[in-house]
Amino acid sequence: MKTWLFWAGVSFIIGGTISLALNLSVQSSLTILEDLTGYSIGWILTGIALIVYSKLRGNKESRYEKT
User: Fold this and answer.
1) What's the pLDDT tens digit per position in 13-42?
2) Cα distances (angstroms) measured from residue 10 to each of 7, 32, 34
3) Which residues of 9-37 are buried (b: 16+ CB within 10 A; e: fewer)?
4) Residue 23, CA distances (Å) to 29, 36, 45, 54, 59 in order
5) Residues 57 and 3 sit within 8 Å (Cβ to Cβ)
6) Using an 8 Å Cβ cutoff, are 55 and 1 in contact?
7) In terms of residue numbers, what domain contains 38?
8) Which of 10, 16, 59, 65 is at 20 to 30 A from 42, Cα to Cα?
9) Where are the alpha helices (H) located in 1-67, listed in sequence order?
10) CA angle 49-51-52, nearest 5°?
11) What is the total count of domains within the chain?
12) For residue 27, what is the DSSP state?
């Protein structure tokens, strides 16, 4: 498994979650330029994709090592 890909994915999820929480906790209405909800969700999805890719890559590598 590519451990750096896994931990990069974890960091993207953490960063996106913090950004989303900060964005949603604002009391006043945000302008379109200030609203970063889409970017936050994008970072979370990128993190999930990196984790899934690293897991799939790790499973593929482990199958080749057994033969």
Assistant:
1) 999 999 889 888 887 777 776 678 888 999
2) 5, 28, 25
3) beebbeebeebbeebeeeeeeeeeeeebe
4) 10, 7, 17, 29, 37
5) no
6) yes
7) 3-66
8) 59
9) 3-24, 37-66
10) 65
11) 1
12) S
Residue with tokens 């057994």: 66
More confident site: 7 or 64: 7
**Token output for 45:** 């999805």
Amino acid identity of residue 31, one-letter, is T
| One-letter amino acid of 23 | N
Share of the chain above pLDDT 70, in %: 84
Distance CA 13, CA 41 (A): 9
